[in-house]
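Cross-check.
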Amino acid sequence: MSKLYEINNDLALLLAEAEGFDETTTAEMIDDWRARYLESKEEQEDKLESIMIVRQESLLRVESLKKEMERLQKQAESDESVARRMEDMLSFFMQNEGRTEIKTPRFTAKFKKNPPSMMMDPEFESSMLEKFGVPEASEELKRRKDQFGEWKSGLKKAAVDLVKSGELPPAGVTITQAERLVIS
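Predicted model, tokenized:
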């Protein structure tokens, strides 16, 4: 089968040839021309139909793939939920039994501490922002907030060090450290 542009070129040539018909053109020549023209038109229609078929098949594949992606997404969410429930069940068992670690030939499950996190009371934080001189709207806001962030990190480190040494953090600051179950 020819390419669509080749078929269109053939049709254009046939139409140009028809413009050259005059009284010397015989009926046989016209019949021959008509047969070639109809054949080219039929070939063009077949080609156009093939293009539409490929388009439809592509759209159907896209729809099918989207449905499959949705199905796989639901399956992944379900499997994640099962994994979370199994981890929660294992964690609950270990906590009830007072165990911090379980070793098997294939896996090891143990509790590890998360890095300490610091919470500031909103009043304490706003008073520190005021003391640090961070205005709510100014051109220096970003630079000052970065400095405040560095100060906040320093406060967190100092507060964590205090808690580690057995002392209390400053009023308005709470240090927490959670645990997570690690299975490897």
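The two ends are 60 Å apart (CA to CA). Strands lie at 101-103, 108-113, 117-120, 173-176, 179-183. Passed to J.P. for a second look.
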